[in-house]
Amino acid sequence: MNARIGRTAIALASGAVVIGSLAGCATDQSAEADTAPSTDGAESTAPTSPSTGTDSTGTDGAEASSSSYTDGEYTETGDYTTPGGQEDVTVTITLADDIVTAVEVTGSATSGNSKQYQSAFISGIAAEVVGKDIDDLDVSKVAGSSLTSSGFNAALDAIRSDAA
Asked: Counting CB atoms within 10 angstroms of each CB, which of 35, 43, 80, 96 has the fewest?
């Protein structure tokens, strides 16, 4: 009887190990980093929407009464740490009624891996933020790049302060 209970316990434990192992094999978005296009230059821009006609001072002379932020174009730099050291991205966002209407990100990475991840991030960020309320943005991973998003979010926080 004890041998039967022991075999049942071993079978259950083995099943749990197999299920846990298979769960670890599930795919995620990080596979995109392996297929992300690489660019030669560290500077790149994401597609943007048409201009809202605002100037680079961050104001257009009018503020919607329902908006929390002043319409305009704002630029800030966000720092983040990689295994290779400190990196940063410069983020320019255009706001209209608290909605991001355009985004441009410029990377400054010089090493191969950082350049590749920044380029992947830059190529995919517009799809993540354009058309969304600035207060709803908290980018965690874009095109397999998770560290670059830390710099983007730091710049975004500064932009929120500037536009308030």
From this structure: 35
Spatial distance between the Cα atoms of 164 and 154, rounded to a whole number of angstroms: 16
Across the chain, mean pLDDT equals 74
56 within 8 A of 30, measured Cβ to Cβ: no
Q: What is the pLDDT of residues 17-44, one digit of tens each?
A: 445 444 443 333 333 333 333 333 334 3
Q: Which pLDDT does position 128 carry in this prediction?
A: 94
Rg (CA), the chain: 22
Residue type, 139: V
Token pair belonging to 25: 């094999």
The shares of helix, strand and coil residues in the chain, as percent rounded to the nearest 5, are 40, 20, 35
Looking from the CA of 128 toward its CB, the CA atoms found within 13 Å total 20
- Can you tell me whether residue 28 is helix, strand or coil? coil
Instruction: Determine contact, residues 139/153, Cβ cutoff 8 Å.
Output: yes
Q: Whole-model pTM?
A: 0.61
